Structure prediction request, 238 residues.
Amino acid sequence: MTVAERLHAVHARIAAAAAAAGRAPSSVRLVAVSKTKPASMIREAYAAGQRDFGENYVQELEAKALDLADLPDLRFHAIGHLQRNKVKAVIRRAGILHTLDSLRLIRELATRAALVPTSQRPAGVAPDGRYRVLLEVNVGGEAQKSGCTPDELGALLAEVEQSDALVLSGLMTVPPHTDAPAGARPYFDRLVQLRDRHGGAARLPELSMGMTQDLEQAVASGATLVRVGTAIFGERER
Ligand SMILES: *Cc1c(COP(=O)(O)O)cnc(C)c1O
Prediction:
Protein backbone atom coordinates (compact mmCIF):
# COMPACT_ATOMS: atom_id res chain seq x y z
CA MET A 1 0.00 0.00 0.00
CA THR A 2 1.10 3.56 -0.63
CA VAL A 3 1.38 6.16 2.12
CA ALA A 4 -1.76 7.81 0.73
CA GLU A 5 -3.69 4.53 0.96
CA ARG A 6 -2.47 3.89 4.48
CA LEU A 7 -3.45 7.42 5.50
CA HIS A 8 -6.87 6.86 4.05
CA ALA A 9 -7.23 3.64 6.06
CA VAL A 10 -6.23 5.41 9.29
CA HIS A 11 -8.77 8.17 8.64
CA ALA A 12 -11.39 5.46 8.14
CA ARG A 13 -10.44 3.92 11.51
CA ILE A 14 -10.70 7.32 13.19
CA ALA A 15 -14.06 8.04 11.54
CA ALA A 16 -15.48 4.66 12.58
CA ALA A 17 -14.27 5.06 16.16
CA ALA A 18 -15.64 8.60 16.33
CA ALA A 19 -19.00 7.53 14.96
CA ALA A 20 -19.20 4.68 17.49
CA ALA A 21 -18.55 7.19 20.26
CA GLY A 22 -21.08 9.70 18.92
CA ARG A 23 -18.32 12.17 18.09
CA ALA A 24 -17.69 14.16 14.92
CA PRO A 25 -14.72 12.72 12.99
CA SER A 26 -13.43 16.28 12.63
CA SER A 27 -13.01 16.48 16.42
CA VAL A 28 -10.01 14.14 16.12
CA ARG A 29 -6.84 15.36 14.44
CA LEU A 30 -4.30 12.90 13.09
CA VAL A 31 -0.65 13.52 13.88
CA ALA A 32 1.43 11.37 11.51
CA VAL A 33 4.47 10.16 13.45
CA SER A 34 7.34 10.17 10.98
CA LYS A 35 10.30 9.42 13.27
CA THR A 36 13.05 7.35 11.58
CA LYS A 37 11.25 7.71 8.23
CA PRO A 38 12.65 9.78 5.35
CA ALA A 39 11.44 13.24 4.38
CA SER A 40 10.31 11.75 1.06
CA MET A 41 7.59 9.82 2.91
CA ILE A 42 6.49 13.00 4.66
CA ARG A 43 6.16 14.58 1.22
CA GLU A 44 3.96 11.70 0.11
CA ALA A 45 1.71 12.17 3.11
CA TYR A 46 1.66 15.93 2.56
CA ALA A 47 0.62 15.45 -1.06
CA ALA A 48 -2.25 13.32 0.26
CA GLY A 49 -3.40 16.19 2.48
CA GLN A 50 -1.66 15.45 5.78
CA ARG A 51 -0.33 18.55 7.57
CA ASP A 52 0.51 17.49 11.14
CA PHE A 53 3.63 15.42 11.73
CA GLY A 54 5.19 14.15 14.95
CA GLU A 55 8.92 13.85 15.46
CA ASN A 56 10.80 12.56 18.52
CA TYR A 57 14.45 13.43 17.96
CA VAL A 58 15.90 16.91 17.63
CA GLN A 59 18.49 16.25 14.95
CA GLU A 60 16.00 14.40 12.81
CA LEU A 61 13.47 17.19 13.27
CA GLU A 62 16.02 19.79 12.15
CA ALA A 63 17.13 17.84 9.10
CA LYS A 64 13.59 17.19 7.95
CA ALA A 65 12.44 20.76 8.61
CA LEU A 66 15.24 22.01 6.35
CA ASP A 67 14.48 19.44 3.69
CA LEU A 68 10.78 20.34 3.77
CA ALA A 69 11.14 24.11 4.10
CA ASP A 70 9.25 24.55 0.82
CA LEU A 71 6.07 23.34 2.58
CA PRO A 72 5.37 26.24 4.94
CA ASP A 73 2.03 25.00 6.26
CA LEU A 74 3.46 21.67 7.39
CA ARG A 75 3.24 21.53 11.20
CA PHE A 76 5.76 19.63 13.28
CA HIS A 77 4.70 18.40 16.71
CA ALA A 78 7.48 17.59 19.17
CA ILE A 79 6.39 14.32 20.77
CA GLY A 80 9.64 12.86 22.14
CA HIS A 81 11.09 13.24 25.61
CA LEU A 82 12.46 16.79 25.81
CA GLN A 83 15.83 17.61 27.30
CA ARG A 84 16.44 21.12 28.55
CA ASN A 85 19.51 21.62 26.42
CA LYS A 86 17.48 20.76 23.29
CA VAL A 87 14.56 23.11 23.88
CA LYS A 88 16.12 25.98 21.96
CA ALA A 89 16.59 23.86 18.83
CA VAL A 90 13.17 22.22 19.05
CA ILE A 91 11.20 25.47 19.18
CA ARG A 92 12.77 26.71 15.98
CA ARG A 93 10.97 23.86 14.18
CA ALA A 94 7.96 22.73 16.20
CA GLY A 95 5.07 24.97 17.27
CA ILE A 96 3.23 22.30 19.26
CA LEU A 97 5.01 20.60 22.15
CA HIS A 98 3.42 17.47 23.66
CA THR A 99 5.80 16.35 26.39
CA LEU A 100 6.38 19.03 29.02
CA ASP A 101 6.60 17.26 32.37
CA SER A 102 8.60 19.32 34.89
CA LEU A 103 8.80 22.86 36.25
CA ARG A 104 12.42 23.20 35.18
CA LEU A 105 11.60 22.20 31.64
CA ILE A 106 8.62 24.57 31.44
CA ARG A 107 10.74 27.45 32.76
CA GLU A 108 13.44 26.74 30.22
CA LEU A 109 10.84 26.60 27.47
CA ALA A 110 9.20 29.85 28.60
CA THR A 111 12.56 31.63 28.66
CA ARG A 112 13.65 30.32 25.27
CA ALA A 113 10.28 30.82 23.62
CA ALA A 114 10.11 34.46 24.68
CA LEU A 115 13.39 35.07 22.82
CA VAL A 116 12.05 33.84 19.47
CA PRO A 117 10.51 36.73 17.50
CA THR A 118 6.90 35.95 16.67
CA SER A 119 7.67 36.22 12.96
CA GLN A 120 10.24 33.44 13.28
CA ARG A 121 8.06 30.96 15.11
CA PRO A 122 7.23 27.78 13.22
CA ALA A 123 3.88 26.63 11.85
CA GLY A 124 1.59 25.18 14.49
CA VAL A 125 1.81 28.01 17.03
CA ALA A 126 -1.48 29.62 18.04
CA PRO A 127 -2.86 32.47 15.87
CA ASP A 128 -1.43 34.97 18.38
CA GLY A 129 2.01 33.37 18.02
CA ARG A 130 2.19 31.53 21.32
CA TYR A 131 3.63 28.01 21.39
CA ARG A 132 1.03 25.38 22.11
CA VAL A 133 1.94 23.26 25.12
CA LEU A 134 0.65 19.92 26.31
CA LEU A 135 1.71 18.36 29.60
CA GLU A 136 2.66 14.70 29.57
CA VAL A 137 1.22 12.67 32.43
CA ASN A 138 2.58 9.28 33.46
CA VAL A 139 -0.85 7.84 34.16
CA GLY A 140 0.47 4.31 34.62
CA GLY A 141 2.96 5.40 37.28
CA GLU A 142 5.75 3.54 35.49
CA ALA A 143 9.15 4.21 37.01
CA GLN A 144 11.07 4.28 33.73
CA LYS A 145 8.61 6.47 31.85
CA SER A 146 8.65 10.24 31.43
CA GLY A 147 5.63 12.36 32.30
CA CYS A 148 4.62 14.10 35.50
CA THR A 149 2.60 12.47 38.26
CA PRO A 150 -1.07 13.40 38.60
CA ASP A 151 -0.17 15.21 41.83
CA GLU A 152 2.32 17.47 40.08
CA LEU A 153 -0.05 18.48 37.33
CA GLY A 154 -1.72 21.47 39.00
CA ALA A 155 1.54 23.35 39.58
CA LEU A 156 2.79 22.63 36.06
CA LEU A 157 -0.42 23.88 34.45
CA ALA A 158 -0.18 27.12 36.42
CA GLU A 159 3.44 27.57 35.36
CA VAL A 160 2.56 27.30 31.66
CA GLU A 161 -0.20 29.87 32.13
CA GLN A 162 2.25 32.37 33.58
CA SER A 163 4.20 32.64 30.34
CA ASP A 164 3.26 35.15 27.64
CA ALA A 165 5.01 32.99 25.05
CA LEU A 166 3.04 29.80 25.79
CA VAL A 167 -0.59 28.76 25.58
CA LEU A 168 -1.89 25.82 27.55
CA SER A 169 -3.29 23.36 25.04
CA GLY A 170 -3.93 20.08 26.83
CA LEU A 171 -2.66 16.79 28.20
CA MET A 172 -0.78 13.91 26.63
CA THR A 173 -0.05 10.35 27.71
CA VAL A 174 1.60 7.13 26.58
CA PRO A 175 -0.07 4.30 28.50
CA PRO A 176 1.77 1.24 29.78
CA HIS A 177 2.22 -1.47 27.18
CA THR A 178 -0.56 -4.04 27.09
CA ASP A 179 -0.97 -6.88 24.60
CA ALA A 180 -4.64 -6.18 23.96
CA PRO A 181 -5.53 -2.66 22.76
CA ALA A 182 -8.44 -2.56 25.21
CA GLY A 183 -5.90 -2.65 28.03
CA ALA A 184 -5.06 1.00 27.32
CA ARG A 185 -8.59 2.23 27.84
CA PRO A 186 -8.46 2.68 31.65
CA TYR A 187 -5.34 4.83 31.26
CA PHE A 188 -6.98 7.01 28.63
CA ASP A 189 -9.99 7.40 30.90
CA ARG A 190 -7.66 8.40 33.70
CA LEU A 191 -6.27 11.24 31.57
CA VAL A 192 -9.82 12.40 30.88
CA GLN A 193 -10.55 12.41 34.63
CA LEU A 194 -7.44 14.50 35.24
CA ARG A 195 -8.52 16.94 32.58
CA ASP A 196 -11.94 17.23 34.21
CA ARG A 197 -10.34 17.80 37.62
CA HIS A 198 -8.16 20.61 36.24
CA GLY A 199 -10.64 22.80 34.43
CA GLY A 200 -12.07 20.54 31.76
CA ALA A 201 -12.04 21.16 28.04
CA ALA A 202 -12.32 24.93 28.48
CA ARG A 203 -8.84 25.03 29.98
CA LEU A 204 -7.40 21.90 28.36
CA PRO A 205 -9.00 21.48 24.92
CA GLU A 206 -6.58 18.87 23.59
CA LEU A 207 -6.06 15.27 24.68
CA SER A 208 -3.11 13.69 22.87
CA MET A 209 -3.45 9.92 23.22
CA GLY A 210 -3.71 6.82 21.06
CA MET A 211 -1.24 5.27 18.62
CA THR A 212 -1.41 2.64 15.88
CA GLN A 213 -2.48 -0.16 18.20
CA ASP A 214 -5.00 1.62 20.38
CA LEU A 215 -6.33 4.67 18.54
CA GLU A 216 -9.91 3.34 18.70
CA GLN A 217 -9.77 3.16 22.49
CA ALA A 218 -8.33 6.66 22.65
CA VAL A 219 -11.02 8.12 20.40
CA ALA A 220 -13.69 6.37 22.48
CA SER A 221 -12.26 8.04 25.60
CA GLY A 222 -12.10 11.49 24.02
CA ALA A 223 -8.75 11.92 22.24
CA THR A 224 -8.50 15.03 20.06
CA LEU A 225 -4.99 14.30 18.77
CA VAL A 226 -3.96 10.75 17.88
CA ARG A 227 -0.29 10.07 17.18
CA VAL A 228 0.02 7.34 14.56
CA GLY A 229 3.25 6.14 12.98
CA THR A 230 3.38 2.49 11.99
CA ALA A 231 -0.05 2.34 10.38
CA ILE A 232 0.93 5.19 8.02
CA PHE A 233 4.63 4.74 7.36
CA GLY A 234 5.14 1.02 8.10
CA GLU A 235 7.23 -0.72 10.75
CA ARG A 236 10.31 1.07 12.04
CA GLU A 237 13.72 -0.54 12.16
CA ARG A 238 14.93 -0.88 15.71
C1 LIG B 1 6.57 6.48 18.03
C2 LIG B 1 5.50 7.17 18.80
C3 LIG B 1 4.15 7.12 18.37
C4 LIG B 1 3.68 6.30 17.18
O1 LIG B 1 3.60 4.95 17.52
P1 LIG B 1 3.01 3.87 16.48
O2 LIG B 1 2.78 2.68 17.34
O3 LIG B 1 4.07 3.64 15.45
O4 LIG B 1 1.77 4.41 15.91
C5 LIG B 1 3.23 7.85 19.09
N1 LIG B 1 3.57 8.58 20.17
C6 LIG B 1 4.85 8.65 20.61
C7 LIG B 1 5.16 9.47 21.80
C8 LIG B 1 5.84 7.93 19.93
O5 LIG B 1 7.09 7.99 20.41
In short: Residues 61 and 83 are 14 Å apart (CA to CA). The chain has one domain: 3-233. The pocket of pyridoxal-5'-phosphate is lined by residues 33, 35, 56, 79, 174, 211-213, 227-230 (CB under 6 Å). The longest helix spans residues 3-20.
